[in-house]
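Supplementary Methods S3. Input chains for the assembly prediction are listed below.
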Amino acid sequence: MSISKKISESMKNQSWIREMFELGNSLKQEYGEKNVYDLSLGNPGSEPSKEFIKSIQSLLSNPTPGMHRYMPNAGYPATRDAVANHLSKIFNVGFSFENIIMTCGAGGSLNVILKSILDYKDEIIIFSPFFPEYLHYVENHGGNPIIIPANENFLPDVETLQKSITNKTKGIIINSPNNPTGVVYPQSTIDEIGIALTQAEEKYGNTIHLISDEPYARLVYKPYKNPSIFSAYTNSILATSFSKDLSLAGERIGYAAINPNHVSRNELINAFTFSNRILGFVNAPALMQNIIPKIIDSIVDVSWYENKRNYLMKNLIELGYEFPDPGGAFFIFAKSPIPNDIEFVKNLLEYKVLVTPGTGFGKQGYFRISYSVEDWVLEGAIQGFSKVINN
Ligand code: PLP
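Predicted structure tokens for the full assembly:
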């Protein structure tokens, strides 16, 4: 075999994703793209703002010498400064550029963080259901992902968290608004996590990092507000990107922000910078780093998502589907009408509707709908949801 056992094993474990993908593709070939209702994708559907297009046109028409060269591995100081100012306004905490490293998306950010903090078999706690890449990201750096269930409201279960921390725990990953549930965590949950981690740090004498993955932080619908990790816990790190809130997923631009009061902030920023280099990212894309300071306070049209969410919620509830309130992101995580979610997802394919089984996110008996699609896709899908639940 010319590929590693580890990669071969990981790919095998995800064979159902490939199966779904292939089934979806063959449906599209057989019936035409316009007759298949694909709610399985995580791509942001809305377009970047006019401001973004104008900024990039203006930059390319007035190039500055060296703008396509390498820069310091942490990114341009001016871009880091702009991110620091942006965060200081949102969180009412004084960030400086020295707390920020620019990365290749939130995925790059998480890998830089984990590379920097993990020794072999160190543990990272993750709540299920979860973004499946977390397992790979932790294992990429020799870590051991410890999966614990969220509570019945799909919020981190703080009691289970307390029981799961050991002297090998280096951090926990949380994600609000959540993929796959769309649930927005309340501030009280983050505050409780902060207290639990502080107690655990005292008990074990180790630093335990609260890593918050927040690429959907600005896709939040009233009355929800995404919580602050920075006010809740000192040893906290934000991993995020402009993939969703500026619709720049393909441009691979994001950052990590270290709490300015983190006990190891200086050591961490140096480690992140080094890890960005040795992971081969080297630096975040230069063109995007030049654009971000100009557009950082803008945002895509959130109502584009909110209207679709409202339409789906109303129709799914009428049909009898149950799901936690999707306060943010662009996902609904609904209970499968039959216990076997993979079977249910296959049944839905008969009506040419594609969704992702909860099994793929570590939660059987549920399925994820991504509503980052055109309205006709949602309308067609509702027909399928209706037929499959009434059969
Ligand atoms: N974290 C979550 C929860 C996601 O859903 C995604 C992308 O879908 C990412 C991280 C990675 O995003 P990025 O494009 O910023 O790397």
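Residues 89 and 95 are 9 Å apart (CA to CA). The chain has 13 helices and twelve strands.
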